[in-house]
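Checklist before submission:
- one chain only
- standard amino acids only
- sequence pasted in full

Submission:
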Amino acid sequence: MLEFALLYRKLLDELTGIREMKLQSYELSEMEWIIAEKLSGVLKIFKQATLFFSAQTPNLSKVIPAMDYIDKHLASGALNTTYLPSIRASMLIGKRLLNKYYNMTDYSEVYRIAMVLNPKRKLDYFRSAGWEEDWIETAREIVEEEFDRGYAGMSPELEEPEVASVRPPYL
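Returned file contents:
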């Protein structure tokens, strides 16, 4: 929506300037247009994430790295002095809100199991994310305990494959 407004800025300015339509209160100042342009660049990451997850069924092993990426984007943007103070403050608030929910995953066994069992991630994900070694060891133990609890006692039932009693017509 913001990209659309920026693309049609001239038309929107003309439209809000028509007195008979009584839209002057919606007219943006030059500074508001500058903020909208800067904010549009900042918000692209959320559009990309939305499109990425809309195109597939999201799972924990994909969502968590995406949250990491968004978190880094917000953290670096909040410190970037080329952004206006209002945008930096908004990015900091967004980072805090993201971290509020993201921190809850630290206590989720399902999250740890999903990341450890993902062939692309395994325990390396936690190391690269800067987790302490005892937390990484706990993640490994959680996976082992869950396996022992739910699967270790099971024996696979192997069935003999059916042998065709009729020879194929080409033999």
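Reviewer check: The two ends are 66 Å apart (CA to CA).
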